Amino acid sequence: MGVIALLIAVWLSRGLAARDARMAQRLLGPGESSRLAARVEELIASRASVVEAIDAERRRIERDLHDGVQQQLVALALLLARAKRSAGLVPHEVPPTDGSSSSGLVSILDQAHENALQALTELRDVAWRVYPAILDDRGLDAALSALAARSAVPVRIDYQLPHRLPRTVEPVAYFAVSEAVTNAAKHSASDIIGVKIRSLEGRAVITVTDNGVGGADPSGAGLSGLARRVAAVEGNMRVTSPQAGRP
């Protein structure tokens, strides 16, 4: 049985501001310049990583739209053009007089209707992946429950936070879990995924586990990009995924 676990620590309250103020006071002692310089370097690197992650996400969305919704809409346009010809609505074209145009038109319209529904479904999926509206409306707990309902592999949610995360942190927490669940469902061959969110010493700790084959690569594009997003909100991430799983 393999296991993949992600631990993401993010600030639960505005206590971070007070903590930073105390840290700044401590920085006024010996070695102030070197510590400040190191912190600035960290922030610059984190900022660049976030920009890279955003660009990568934009490219992924473009591919999804091009390969999915756009192709469906092109097919829909072609079907509607065929329907117009079948119905005799195209100038200088005479529709068949043997009755086949009527049955053919119904078949074409059925296909067009199916294509329209498929395009709508794919567009909704893309919009959900970009940013689920339920996250703003009802919070992380509800958004994760909806994520679990859409997963191909059963997902158990254990949510124990006393209140909502800050607005800047909540999307990062959601997409971290979403990416972890998606990876587990696609690559781990697991039959159950667990998500636990709890509060520990003023921080939110999120653990995602599965009973799959293991072998996840923390340096891969998906997980490394996820780690950068978490770091951008003063969080940290740890991945444990033995190649052969656990006995």
TrEMBL record:
The keyword Transferase applies. It catalyses: ATP + protein L-histidine = ADP + protein N-phospho-L-histidine. Residues 57-133 form the Signal transduction histidine kinase subgroup 3 dimerisation and phosphoacceptor domain. Its EC number is 2.7.13.3. Gene3D superfamilies: 1.20.5.1930, Histidine kinase-like ATPase, C-terminal domain. InterPro entries: HATPase_C_sf (IPR036890), Sensor_HK_TwoCompSys (IPR050482), Sig_transdc_His_kin_sub3_dim/P (IPR011712). One of its GO terms (cellular component) is membrane. The keyword Hydrolase does not apply. Transmembrane segments: none annotated. GO terms for molecular function: ATP binding; phosphorelay sensor kinase activity; protein dimerization activity. This is histidine kinase. Keywords: ATP-binding, Kinase, Nucleotide-binding, Phosphoprotein, Transferase, Two-component regulatory system. It is an enzyme of class 2 (transferase).
